[in-house]
UniProtKB/TrEMBL annotation:
It comes from Glossina pallidipes (Tsetse fly). Signal peptide: none annotated. Residues 7-100 form the Fibronectin type-III domain. It comes from the Eukaryota. SMART domains: FN3 (SM00060). InterPro entries: FN3_dom (IPR003961), FN3_sf (IPR036116), Ig-like_fold (IPR013783). This is Fibronectin type-III domain-containing protein. Transmembrane segments: none annotated.
Amino acid sequence: MYSMADLPDPVKNCTAYNATANSLQIQCVAGFDGGIPQHFHVQIYDETSRQILYNISYRNPDFTIKRLPSDSMFIIRITAVNGQGPSKLTYKLRARTLMAPLLRTGEYNYFILAGHF
């Protein structure tokens, strides 16, 4: 006798951490996989333009999103998926990348003060 596979349970308790100017780390708690292997489908949207930047899948619920614009806010949607289909609910969170460090290029101006003080 065998048991039938089911849809996976949704991820929960997702958090963004270790933000840099161009990356975010995301960590979630996976739900029950439905009895068969699951992966995690992730969509990243720019919060201002609502434009989708990435549509990618990861094997684990802990992952790093790279090559993001700096000093930007994102909406991140995470869905567990197995061979039966996607989980019934999608986890949504907001996260921000840091401001990029200023690059100093070009000439520097030096002032020399002379005289009696």
